[in-house]
Amino acid sequence: MFNGDVGTVETIDADASELTVRYPSGEAGGNDGREVTYGWGELDNLVPAYACTIHKSQGSEYPAVVIPLLTQHYAMLQRNLVYTGITRGKQLVVLVGQTKELAIAIKNHFGGRHYNKLREPHSCALAVD
Q1: Coil, strand or helix at 44
Q2: How, if at all, do strands 89-96 and 34-39 pair?
């Protein structure tokens, strides 16, 4: 199991104090993934996945995806995030918001840039043998 993996609770065995989760193999529609059994003491490692972020959804697909587009979270209105969110949906994708928010996100392709001082000559030194 890796951070961000989403599985389905298959069994709960109260007598043995454990719960079994099936994680999909990654194949679309496949249910032949691995099963992992957790003891009651390990359940704090699991979080219900009623919803997850676009970042956590990367590499996964879901039957339905709902993407809120809100100017209150202006920094998240980025083309790459909307694209990633849309491509996670297999059957249904719902964008919630106004056309204005979608237009802002589509025009904003600068979200991936990180500004730092690494390009300045005095920022770092390299030694070559």
Answers
A1: helix
A2: unpaired
| Sign of the alpha-carbon dihedral angle for 99, 103, 106, 110 | negative
Tokens standing for residue 29: 């529609």
How far apart CA 97 and CA 14 sit, in angstroms, is: 44
Compute the C-alpha angle 72/75/81, nearest 5°.
110
Confidence at residue 15, expressed as pLDDT on a 0 to 100 scale: 95
Q: State pLDDT tens for residues 13-64.
A: 999 999 999 987 764 445 567 899 999 999 988 888 777 788 777 777 888 8
Between the alpha carbon of residue 31 and those of residues 26, 43, 106, 120, the distances in Å are: 9, 22, 35, 51
Judge contact between 85 and 106, C-beta under 8 A: no
The answer, as to whether pTM is greater than 0.90, is no
Degrees to nearest 5, angle at CA 61 with 59 and 67: 100
CA 124, distance to chain mean position in Å, is 34
